[in-house]
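Supplementary Methods. Inverse-folding protocol.

Structures were first reduced to a discrete structure-token string of length 349. This string, shown here, constituted the complete conditioning input.
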């Protein structure tokens, strides 16, 4: 069961509890699931019981117990535990890891993207400042990935260099005549230096990787190809996944999702958490959350890559094919995330 399928399973459990009269509360549009945090257990956790507690007029633990009875019998669920104030910790039947890889490879760069519009209308309005312009564009892409309809406006006409070099675009400039129901003013801490000389990819990363309340560093460090540069690590990790596919083909085998027979927990968890990260980045209008999660995935990939290909006289096995599929899934997620930030994911570095 993939995170998307599990989210639907959780919502079905909520609907059953509401239909049975056990809960009196509106059914949310979506249920967030992610790998458990500290103190959690199982494969995934959801805070839906805490979300429903106030409208239901019941303690979160009581809501969690009601939902657990409906979740425990769901197909693909091996067990449900309650931890902390009311988190539901879900253990899946075997095959969850394989299903995740299959889902990512099927969806490609659209993994974590919502297919149906939510009906949310958002207007992002920003001053004529380069970081605000780049941030608003990235936030718009992330919001659209989560089903929102977004319009971007700037207080004045943007600098032409921002479009030519940084790929910045806005839907209109000047004071909007008819704002959307939800208007968001995008005003991150301005860049103290002109990022345009860094070029598109490095400049956008320099502006988007720090949180909006932090001062961005506009230095040539973003251009160096070394491990101290997070952007390099993310792009290099993506390039390595592509190289692994090529090297495997030269050895006469291709990927096939399955049991990796190795400790890939950290990579699986990071990939499983990606849809939740996208949703959180959209909700908080925070592209830095996406950028930091891409660094997390990249760092795990750069460790995991050494287990993918056979060593010496070792013959390719089902485990090697499964590890290659997992690496290719990670590459697809890295490419998709960079695309949302407006950054290229090259196959070679």
């Amino acid at each position: 069961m993939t995170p998307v399928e599990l989210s639907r399973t959780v919502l079905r459990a909520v609907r059953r509890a509401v239909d049975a009269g056990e809960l009196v509360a509106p059914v949310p549009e979506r249920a967030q699931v992610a790998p458990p945090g500290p103190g959690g257990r199982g494969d995934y956790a959801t805070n839906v019981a805490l979300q429903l507690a106030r409208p239901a007029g019941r303690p979160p633990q009581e809501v969690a117990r009601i939902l657990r009875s409906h979740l425990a019998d769901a197909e693909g669920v091996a067990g449900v535990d309650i931890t902390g104030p009311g988190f539901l910790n879900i253990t899946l039947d075997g095959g969850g890891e394989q299903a995740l890889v299959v889902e990512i490879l099927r969806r490609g760069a659209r993994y974590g993207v919502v297919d149906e519009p939510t009906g949310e209308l958002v207007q992002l309005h920003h001053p004529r400042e380069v970081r605000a312009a780049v941030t608003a564009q990235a936030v718009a892409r992330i919001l659209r990935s989560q089903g929102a309809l977004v319009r971007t406006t700037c207080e004045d006409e943007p600098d032409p260099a921002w479009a030519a070099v940084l790929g910045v675009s806005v839907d209109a400039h000047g004071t909007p005549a008819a704002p959307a129901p939800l208007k968001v003013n995008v005003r991150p801490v301005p860049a103290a230096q002109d990022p345009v000389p860094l070029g598109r990819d490095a400049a956008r990363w320099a502006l988007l990787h720090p949180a909006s309340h932090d001062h961005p560093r506009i230095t040539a460090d973003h251009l160096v190809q070394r491990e101290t540069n997070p952007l390099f690590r993310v792009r290099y990790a993506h390039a390595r996944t592509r190289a692994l596919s090529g090297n495997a083909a030269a050895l006469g085998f291709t990927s096939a999702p399955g049991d990796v027979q190795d400790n890939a927990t950290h990579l699986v968890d990071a990939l499983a958490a990606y849809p939740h990260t996208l949703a959180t980045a959209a909700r908080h209008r925070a592209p830095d959350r996406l950028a930091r999660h891409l660094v997390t995935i990249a760092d795990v990939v750069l460790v995991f890559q050494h287990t993918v290909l056979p060593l010496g006289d070792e013959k390719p096995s089902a485990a090697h094919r499964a590890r290659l599929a997992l690496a290719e899934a990670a590459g697809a997620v890295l490419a998709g995330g960079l695309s949302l930030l407006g950054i290229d994911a090259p196959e070679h570095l």
